[in-house]
Each structure stands twice: as structure tokens, then as C-alpha cells.
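Title: Prediction job returns without error message
Component: structure pipeline
Severity: low
Priority: P3
Assignee: unassigned

Description:
Job completed but the reporter wants confirmation the result is attached to the right record. Sequence as submitted:
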Amino acid sequence: QAQLVESGGGMVQPGGSLRLACATSVSFFRASVMGWYRQAPGKQRELVAKVSGGGNTNYADSLKGRFTISRDTASNTVYLQMNSLKPEDTAVYYCNAGGSLWSSGYYWGQGTQVTVSS
């Protein structure tokens, strides 16, 4: 059973930056595609970014250039660096494990709130 522990959410002003982190178990981390999804109030959960064990990535088209996903094998952690944040980025961000670069896996984190507001 995989455990995904997220951190790094919070409130930031428009134009600011945040970095989310998701830690998981060693064997699962090395085997799985990892990624981030988000869900804003009243909207469906949507893909943000995913990264494979080999380092290949997939991003939502609207977020390319502002968000960067990465994974650190030494700490078994996947990161989401979010820059130039906009109010429309406000959502609960969920870590996800498994699946493919284009589809979600079975395992989810508890979610972390990101609020972009002045």
C-alpha cells in the first residue's frame, strides 16, 4: 500500500511562487509514474503534471512554462515548482502515483490547499 504525504501548500499573492512536495515509499517511488492533479471549487479534478521513473514529463498545456515537476530519488520525493501564480491556480492539489503520463494512478495523497489571492 503506497502512502503519499504532501506538503508546501498555502496562500500566496498573484505573481508569487510555491513549491509542493510529495513523499512516498522507496519501492513504490522507483516503480511508478508520479504526478500532481488539482481540483478547484465546482470543477473537475484535472492533470497538472506527471513524471516517469525515467524522467519523462507531461504537463497541462495551460501550465507549461510556469510549473515544473521533478523527482528526487534520494529522498523519494516528487516536487511541483509553481511560479507566476494566478488566482485561477487556486485549488486543492493532489499527489498521485501510478497510471501513465497521461492518466491518473490508483494512489492519491490527502491534498494540499493552494490559494492565490491579493
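Comment from assignee: result matches the submitted record. The helical segments are 26-31.
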